Amino acid sequence: MASEITGAQALVNALEDSGVDVMFGIPGGAILPAYDPIFDSKIRHILVRHEQGAGHAATGYAQVTGRVGVCIATSGPGATNLVTPIADAQMDSVPLVAITGQVPSAAIGTDAFQEADIRGITMPITKHNYLITDPAQIPRAIAEAFYIASSGRPGPVLVDIAKDALQKMTSYNYPKKLNLLGYNPQIEPNSEAIRDAASLIAQSSKPIFYIGGGVIKANAAKELLVLAELVGAPVVTTLMARGAFPDSHSQHLGMPGMHGTVAAVTGLQKADLLITLGARFDDRVTGKLSTFAPNAKIIHADIDPAEIGKNRYADVPIIGDLGPIIKALIPAVKVEFAKNKADITSWWKQMNSLRQKYPLGYNEPSDGSLSPQYVIERIGAITGPDGIYVAGVGQHQMWASQFVKYEKPRTWLNSGGLGTMGYAVPAAMGAKVGAPDTPVWAIDGDGCFQMTNQELVTCALNDIPIKVAVINNESLGMVRQWQTLFYKERYSNTDLHSKRIPDFAKLAEAMGCVGLRCESKGDVDKIIKEANAINDAPVVVDFGVHRDAMVWPMVAAGTSNDDILIAKEMAPDWDSQEL
Amino acid sequence: MAQHTLSVLVENSPGVLARVASLFSRRGYNIDSLAVGPTESPEISRITIVLNLEGHALDQVSAQLFKLVNVIGIQEMEDKNSHQRELLMVKVNSAGDNRSKIEAVVGKYRASIVSQASASLTIEAIGSSAEIAALLGELTSFGIKELVQSGLIALENGDATLAERTLQETGLASSSTHSQTEDYQN
User: Fold this and answer.
1) What is the ipTM, given to two decimal places?
2) Among A44, A157, A183, which would you mutate to test the B interface (most chain B Cβ atoms within 10 Å of its Cβ)?
3) Does A147 sit within 8 Å of B184, measured CB to CB?
4) pTM higher than 0.90 for the full model?
């Protein structure tokens, strides 16, 4: 019989036994007992400046490493500050474990000081959650939390632990076997579904790979490359899948969706078969759902059975992990191709014509001011495909997806589903902790940056030298773009005046970072190289850019993908296209 | 709109009803009735949900429900192969010469009068949704003073049980297949 330890010590032991090497958090009253054994633990604890930062940092760490990210906070406001990053992780299927302290069990339900029902609050935004009031339950809850967060479709799990459960004594046993009656994710695909899919692929004369973030979660990018080259079809990668397939590859048409390339958007619209791997027919990809890919049959492979048929009927659903699925599809497709293979050369002719005629591009501002797209393009080109790029949400995010060229999975991080402004700086911090030898650029907007920049203090104090490009157009740029297009240029509350206040370079200096500023095209390369050369401190570069730049192409919200515009009031010249 | 009855086996753990209710609420599924109770196993509770589906396929609802970690098994209970009952208690105005007429209706539906007072009768009835609705239709003319109705509960006909079926489907029946220990370490 092992000697008794506190629930708090059991928590820390269980975290260690779950393989945790780093966690992000802030102590407070209810979680305080846990922080005493944390003081002696081999787990690196990074003291953040706001719990939201802890959550996004854990997410960034998880997205870069593929491991479970861990954040920890106290009860009440500490826990509620985690709500946004937890919801963010749920939408983007990020494996996250959030530990929160709760008021003592006798006080639960009494509106005690710093009490919030965080289990109830996070029920709809977690994969699963726990409220633990018995110290003996802590090791099992932690073990289950890590298993649930990381297996199947990954997601956030919250473990809320009452203060007295942390203080009481218990014996410690890390469970060797879990007994989750209602949780048993299917990994291996049904072989009949694989054969049906392969048969459809062989018959299709206009196939297209619709690749989602699931391919990255499943670490299946290598297998995807083999399958895609075998089939020879065009490939599109969604916002969550950038890097799952090399941008330099000749079969890659780019990103589909609201700000996707004309070729990618039109490719989905005109295809006769969507080979959907780990994507979920999100409204930002489909546009008006009833008009999406009207002539296409759908192969839909996903580890989450609830995604099948949620938005679009699947002719061939394949449930399982994308690794085994793609591995099984490769020989099955070879077998079908040996029998027959539809000709896709005229399909490629159409696609090639579209991408030649409508490549991604942008106009330089006529007044000589700095183009935001150029800045982002240069950051990507100079830093290269080995760098990690983390965006906030808005115009700069779309440009970072369009104009940085991604060659590898886990090099592009952003808040795709929830669209969380303020994600970039803390997520970049977590990414850098997960990949300390890799340059990490946060590409942020001046609006986003002002939501969470205080985590640069955490970076400066903890030797986490990230780089931040503030794409400063002194506005909430995407909202402003919509006001330009849909609200008669009435710019209600989108002017941030952030070329005047604050002084981002000075703010960076005040937080222990190097602060740089760039306002002319001629200086862009020099300053990016200067920032890349600094590895002993975080760097913030304030790029003052033109405020009227817009993200194109665009499929306006709620409209059909067929109504894609390549510039304001300018549709592609469909008549000259043979589609 | 089509009505469906789902029997859902859940772990008997705190908050499980809230999880189910929250899921239905946030995904916009309409619940007509819901009944929760214990089962043959103390660790497992059973929720019977009657829902009207409009635009949502039943298998989508089931798949979303099954994503809840505490949900162990789900089965649709169809009229033709299950026994479905709800319980009604109703207080009916029995003034004047209503009493004998009410007794006739009660007899017709094999309901029973469980309490008599000077101006009302309290009637208990167990039946299918259609029978209960028909009974209520006839009682309405006398004046219903108070009414309470349980959610519907349902049990599949024959030897098969939901628990057995669930364990077979998820591969948990044989303990050797249940190895969730290998890769959950970070």
Assistant:
1) 0.91
2) A183
3) yes
4) yes
